[in-house]
Specification:
This is Malate dehydrogenase. By secondary structure, this protein is an alpha/beta fold. The chain has eleven helices and 13 strands. The structure holds nicotinamide-adenine-dinucleotide and (2S)-2-hydroxybutanedioic acid (LMR). (2S)-2-hydroxybutanedioic acid binds next to α9.
Length: 339
């Protein structure tokens, strides 16, 4: 179904984004974990996105208030709140994109893998419901450990007979956001002009920013590149420690999640050349899942792009990350198949 937005402010915005026509398709986005630290600002940002026509906010508690609040904003989408498992099906039905920031965040001293025991079960349950109620939706997985929750989702969908590797994404956009910010600071270039691919996974050394491919190019000395790499890999921990027990990145994550969901929606709507990094099923390396640049299209992943030329430091980082990433992927697959 298409809704004309020709004379609205939203319509003007879309035309700026490169639309050739004056119509934009209806798109439903569901946020699971919408009352949480990420969920609330992400709900706000998705409410501001003119590509969204229906916004479903689901959580196990507190969604009616969040939904009522967000629903008063005078933008295109209709907002509905859903609370508790009984309402999960209704929240998901008809969704084009499902974003999952449900689950517990880290406290200082924890790794993302320490969240596995709680979050693996949460993600599994939510993915079983997605397979039932909106099997064709693009799934944007934010819940940690992403290196394991994405393989869990894939196994759940395989068991349900609904798996489409083009539609499952681990959201690693925050790593790219951080790499861009930190690089711009050191290279003294305008941050809005910066591009840096980040590949691998989303935990510690599995996060591999490719500063050798950063643009605008700045020829930074090796010790600066090493320090930038470490800061990007430890960006999540930097926030966890600064929040001192009150959780992990929420606002920057909501921003990153909104950018990635927007890219998915643009791809679905046929906007050409939409490219973002994401942790997806991949043949870029020997690992079954890997984050790299991905071209998004009308069916989700249109093309998983290769790594491009790597510096010796990046080649070394790539080899170092593989054992940890492999073991996190295998842990997810094992969990999904034994429980
Ligand atoms: P939070 O505790 O503030 O919010 C989580 C929300 O999930 C809560 O509202 C909770 O009620 C809800 N929830 C729990 N079980 C649920 C279920 N079965 N169904 C629906 N909702 C459920 O945590 P947060 O700070 O928003 O972080 C959420 C997750 O995102 C964590 O796992 C965190 O590690 C992860 N995260 C990932 C990235 C990334 O880059 N991918 C970045 C930041 C945080
Ligand atoms: C992040 O990168 O900020 C998230 O993965 C949250 C965390 O635990 O670090």
């Amino acid at each position: 179904m298409f809704r004309s937005v020709a004379r609205s402010a939203a319509g003007k915005h879309l035309l700026r984004r490169g639309y050739a026509t004056e119509s934009v398709p209806d798109r439903k986005v569901a946020v699971l974990g919408a009352a949480g630290g990420i969920g609330q600002p992400l709900a706000l940002l998705m409410k501001l996105n003119p590509l969204v026509s229906r916004l479903a906010l689901y959580d196990i508690a507190n969604t009616p208030g969040v939904a009522a609040d967000v629903s008063h904003i005078n933008t295109r989408s209709e907002v509905e709140g859903f609370v508790g498992e009984d309402q999960l099906g209704k929240a998901l039905e008809g969704s084009d994109v499902v974003i999952i920031p449900a689950g517990v965040p880290r406290k200082p001293g924890m790794t993302r893998d320490d969240l596995f025991n709680i979050n693996a079960g949460i993600v599994k349950g939510l993915c079983e419901a997605i397979a039932k109620y909106c099997p064709h939706a693009l799934v944007n997985m934010i819940s940690n450990p992403v290196n394991s929750t994405v393989p869990i989702a894939a196994e759940v969908f395989k068991k349900a007979g609904t798996y489409d590797e083009k539609k499952l994404f681990g959201v690693t956009t925050l790593d790219v956001v951080r790499a861009k910010t930190f690089y711009a600071g050191k290279a003294k270039v305008p941050v809005a002009d910066v591009n840096v691919p980040v590949v691998g996974g989303h935990a510690g050394i599995t996060i591999l920013p490719l500063f050798s491919q950063a643009t605008p190019s700045a020829n930074l000395p090796e010790d600066v590149v090493v320090a930038l790499t470490k800061r990007t890999q430890d960006g999540g921990t930097e926030v966890v420690e600064a929040k001192a027990g009150k959780g992990s990145a929420t606002l920057s994550m909501a921003y990153a999640g909104a950018i990635f969901a927007d890219a998915c929606l643009k791809g679905l709507n046929g906007v050409p050349d939409v490219v973002e990094c994401s942790f997806v099923q991949s043949t870029v390396t020997e690992l079954p899942f890997f984050a790299s640049k991905v071209k998004l299209g009308k069916n989700g992943v249109e093309e998983v792009l290769g790594l491009g030329p790597l510096s010796d430091f990046e080649k070394e980082g790539l080899e170092k990350l593989k054992p940890e990433l492999k073991s996190s992927i295998e842990k997810g697959i094992k969990f999904a198949n034994q429980s």
